[in-house]
Amino acid sequence: MQITPQSLTALAQGFNAAFLQGFESAPSGYQQIAMTIPSTGSAENYGWMKDLPGMREWAGQRVIHNLEATTAQLVNKHWEHTVGVSIDDIEDDKLGIYKTIFSQQGEIAARHPDDLVWGLLSKGFTTTGFDGQPFFDADHAGFDRAGKEVSWSNAQSGGGAAWFLFDLSRNYLKPLIFQSRKAVQFTRKDRQEDDNVFLENTYLFGADARYVAGFGFHQLAFGSRDTLDADNYEAARLALSTQYRPDGSPLAVRPTHLVVGVSNEARARTLLMKERLANGEDNIWHGSAQLIVSPWLE
Asked: 49 pLDDT exceeds 60?
């Protein structure tokens, strides 16, 4: 191929098209467990809100519920993925492989938010959330039916593969956060005066974006490293379902999704999908939650 400004433009357009084809065809599922928060700066601060008591009869003055200021914040990170194309390959018309490479690059960029969000789950037993406790912890602040502050646990200890129970029924609130500052963009460095062209005889084509993932509402999540069985599953459901506001009214958390890795898939399917137990009794947990098998978990 003779290299001209016109041929370079056409080449870049072809690479960009291949990138977009890979990007748009890649499946993505992080939105299942993470709420997307737009970001307008280098970081976003998250005030941790105590559970609101709900509606009350307006008798006398209003009761005002304020956000509590915290130092918790999510700092956006800048991500990139760059491919170098040899000028010799262009001149020799050896471009067939590059379409596949740029399609793969698009798929890598599209899947990266999944890597971040789903990859957080197993870290939640040690990583601090916005209330200053590990996201999955035995000592969160909670309330009982009388409105008395109590210790509340959304974790089970153990040494096995982690599994999780979530309330994913809400339109705007999810257990995790995906904070987006700048969407993925595809750029090129193929001018004769670019250092990579002059020094390395290579054109560069790269994708970059700014975003970060973090922990959100622990009240909607339960994590366990204990055995996935009926007793522990029941305990997890009970923990999520028995949360109360400061006035004693229920938070109305509904466990909807069981998230496991491949090592727990058989146990999860037995727990949720078998109508009868081995002894012939009805399985009371049949259909009680939807199953998500995540490749990011053990």
From this structure: no
